[in-house]
Specification:
Layout (H helix, E strand, L loop, with lengths): L17 H12 L16 E2 L15 E9 L6 E3 L2 E10 L2 E10 L5 E9 L28 E3 L2 E5 L5 E6 L5 E6 H5 L13 E3 L2 E5 L9 E5 L5 E5 L10 E5 L2 E7 L3 E6 L5 E6 L14 E3 L2 E6 L4 E10 L2 E10 L12 E3 L2 E5 L11 E5 L5 E5 L6 E5 L2 E5 L4 E6 L6 E7 L16 E3 L2 E6 L1 E7 L8 E8 L6 E8 L5 E8 L6 E2 L3 E4 L5 E7 L7 E10 L2 E4 L3 E4 L7 E3 L3 E2 L4 E8 L7 H4 L2 E6 L17 E2 L5 E6 L8 E6 L2
Length: 641
Amino acid sequence: MQVPGSSEFRSRNGSRDFAASVFVFLAAVASGTDWPQYRGPTSDGVSPDPMATTWATNSPGFVVWTNASLTNGFSSFAVSQGRAFALFSRNVGGSMKELCGAVDAATGANLWATVIDSAPWNLNDTGNGGAGSAPYNKGDGPRGTPASKDGRVLALSGNQLHLVCLNATNGSVIWSNNLASRYGASKIDWENAASPCLEGDLIFVNLNTATDGQTLAAFRMADGSLAWSTQNEGLTHTTPAVATLEGVRQVIFATTTGLVSLNCTNGAFLWKYPYPFSEISTSMGASPLVYSNIVYCTAGYGRGAAAARITYSEGAWTVTQLFFRNTANHRSIWMTPVCYQGYIYTLCGENSTFLTTPLNCIELSTGNLKWSTNGFGMGGLILVDTNLLVLREDGQLVLVRPNPNAYTELARYRAFQFTAAAPGKCWNSPAYSEGRIYARSTRGGISLNVAPPALLPVLGSLGASNVTTTAATLLGRVNPNGAASGAWFEWGTNTSYGSNTAVIANLTGSAAIAVSNVLTGLEPNSTYHFRLVATNSAGVTRGDDQTFTTQPLPPQLQLLSARFLNSTQLQLVVTTTNGAPIDSSRLSRIEVRATNTLGASPATWPRLTNGLVLTTNGLAWMTNLLNVGPSRLFYITVEQP
């Protein structure tokens, strides 16, 4: 079932000459990194895209849009191909339903919302998912985050474990699996919180099917069929993580008894790291984290955090524990950490700490606490390029430099405001794509423009090559400086130029890129001016003026008077009108033609097939056999282009 929705959003657009129109085109076709699933493109909470470290929070374009209809629950955004997807609950036909919905990533306008399950959550409950310190409470709802790929959206419902594949354009159902009725799957207390984890065409899910050896499973995205299932492992609220360890691509499940790694392709068992703390009997929500060949896990309810090194040698996997710490600064109930340069950055707290939860820095190799800063709450964090983006429980977004020596804050903005009349909270993880933050609370969604200021393209001109009488190739280099750029050459017979070559579009990256354009239809023996030009969102860069001169036309050809060698042979000699020698490259284009009918057009005269021979003094000659009889032949020399 699809239902309409209302959105409250605001967007601000600007407009930008030949160079400006080029950039508008580039902006339309340029693409950045999507955030296609929970924990981002590589399921480790990391975006490679750059972000501004100083936020212009008062500028008109900083808040791109807000959408107050995306209420209830703890789903993050998945952002893919110009759309943002999330799970939320809403009253549909008199009963609460769980929906997967899409909004326009550029404007926040609602596109579609499709019912995927019934919603068991009490939106006004101040316990369970509504717990917290007022007004930072209420708004219980779906815990999972959709995933998107190739025009499809995957969602795993929280109540009856429906794994649903939807059309990303209109939300129509492509296929649906009721995992409980079809595969014996079962949920745990506080409903399902795992999100579908994508790798290639596979979706990884813990079915929680007791002792049938089919607990950990992979489904095909194409049709929802089961690709493989294996092991007997209890379900937690975590989402699997995909990583490459020792050269092997693997999916890692955080189960009730330990971290279990399987081969992504066929589900073959690789290794298990049993927790050094007690079995998970209540809840574990923080997904496993992989950095280099180290895995890290953390859990609340008095358990702690641990790390192990994973190695492979002589056909066997080895798991070596590095540390186990059971302190309040190591326990995280559901906030999945990130790792940067060997240090874990994590929101640590139990289900009773709420707003006081600290942001901590922990050394991955030892478990030593480097620093702790209180007051972040039970929110979420990701790593964007080289900085931490933290969504606090109270609705503030904070940018932090990952400095193991001290807490270093770079920027802050209150994205959500909660009051007694409008309570809510952020138990969600932010998302980042193409210079924009996408964040949710239990009261709606927001998108912020934090793209770094673009730098002008840097140019290097390489001059002109392949210069002929009527053509030349212009050469240069463009460094886009990290922003989508377009480049072209201005050219003409003076420094006013007057003509532009075709635009070379969609230049990206931060390295010099060779560019070229071919000019044709030029005048022989003429000097032309040209310069390289490039543009991106920062403006236009014009290179230095350069020149080239086309080749002059070669001297015209003529036939010397024919000379009879004997009664049947005639020698024909080709030379130039000014006596300049003919070179070998020109020889291949020279033809001699003959006719008996002088009135016919020379273009129709037959070509003599005897080959021309170049002499040492730059003449070309051939011997022609004469026809028997009194007929006379007329001869002409022709040069092909």
